[in-house]
Write a structure and sequence with these properties.
- With about 60 residues, the protein is an alpha+beta fold.
- It has one domain.
- The chain contains 1 helix and 5 strands; from the N terminus they run βββββα.
- It has one helix spanning about 45-60, and strands at about 5, 15, 25-30, 35, 40.
- The chain has a 3-stranded antiparallel sheet with strand order 2-3-4, with no helix packed on it. Strands 1-5 form a two-stranded antiparallel ribbon.
- A hairpin with an 8-residue loop joins β2 (about 15) and β3 (about 25-30).
- The longest helix is centred in the C-terminal third of the chain and has 19 residues, at about 45-60.
- The chain is elongated and about 45 Å long.
- The N and C termini lie far apart (about 40 Å).
- The structure holds zinc ion.
- The site of zinc ion has 8 residues, from loops.
Protein backbone atom coordinates (compact mmCIF):
# COMPACT_ATOMS: atom_id res chain seq x y z
CA UNK A 1 0.00 0.00 0.00
CA UNK A 2 1.28 3.41 -0.92
CA UNK A 3 1.25 5.90 1.91
CA UNK A 4 0.34 9.47 1.17
CA UNK A 5 0.93 12.62 3.20
CA UNK A 6 -2.14 14.80 3.50
CA UNK A 7 -2.31 18.43 4.55
CA UNK A 8 -4.55 18.78 7.64
CA UNK A 9 -5.74 22.19 6.44
CA UNK A 10 -6.75 21.75 2.80
CA UNK A 11 -6.57 17.94 2.47
CA UNK A 12 -4.14 18.23 -0.43
CA UNK A 13 -1.55 15.54 -1.01
CA UNK A 14 0.86 18.16 -2.32
CA UNK A 15 2.84 17.91 0.90
CA UNK A 16 6.56 17.46 1.21
CA UNK A 17 9.19 17.62 3.91
CA UNK A 18 10.28 21.22 4.30
CA UNK A 19 13.90 22.09 3.52
CA UNK A 20 14.85 18.54 2.71
CA UNK A 21 13.68 17.31 6.09
CA UNK A 22 16.18 19.36 8.10
CA UNK A 23 13.52 21.15 10.13
CA UNK A 24 11.42 18.02 10.41
CA UNK A 25 8.43 20.02 9.32
CA UNK A 26 6.13 19.55 6.39
CA UNK A 27 5.19 22.06 3.76
CA UNK A 28 1.95 22.10 1.79
CA UNK A 29 2.48 23.46 -1.69
CA UNK A 30 -1.20 24.15 -2.13
CA UNK A 31 -2.13 26.31 0.88
CA UNK A 32 1.30 27.11 2.31
CA UNK A 33 0.77 25.22 5.57
CA UNK A 34 3.98 24.51 7.44
CA UNK A 35 4.00 22.29 10.49
CA UNK A 36 5.22 19.11 12.06
CA UNK A 37 1.78 17.55 11.85
CA UNK A 38 0.40 16.06 8.68
CA UNK A 39 -2.01 13.24 8.07
CA UNK A 40 -0.44 10.03 6.91
CA UNK A 41 -2.69 7.44 5.38
CA UNK A 42 -2.92 4.90 2.63
CA UNK A 43 -4.33 5.84 -0.75
CA UNK A 44 -7.39 3.77 0.06
CA UNK A 45 -7.98 5.64 3.30
CA UNK A 46 -7.46 8.95 1.51
CA UNK A 47 -10.09 8.13 -1.11
CA UNK A 48 -12.43 7.04 1.66
CA UNK A 49 -11.91 10.36 3.43
CA UNK A 50 -12.61 12.37 0.28
CA UNK A 51 -15.76 10.39 -0.29
CA UNK A 52 -16.96 11.04 3.25
CA UNK A 53 -16.17 14.75 2.99
CA UNK A 54 -18.10 14.98 -0.25
CA UNK A 55 -21.06 13.25 1.33
CA UNK A 56 -21.05 15.54 4.36
CA UNK A 57 -20.80 18.55 2.08
CA UNK A 58 -23.79 17.38 0.07
CA UNK A 59 -25.60 16.83 3.34
CA UNK A 60 -24.91 20.42 4.42
CA UNK A 61 -26.40 21.76 1.22
CA UNK A 62 -29.71 20.08 2.04
CA UNK A 63 -30.17 22.10 5.21
ZN1 LIG B 1 -2.64 22.58 2.52
Amino acid sequence: MTKVLVCPVCKSTDVELDAGGVSGKYYCKKCGYVGSFVLEMTEGEFEEMLKMEKESMEHDENK
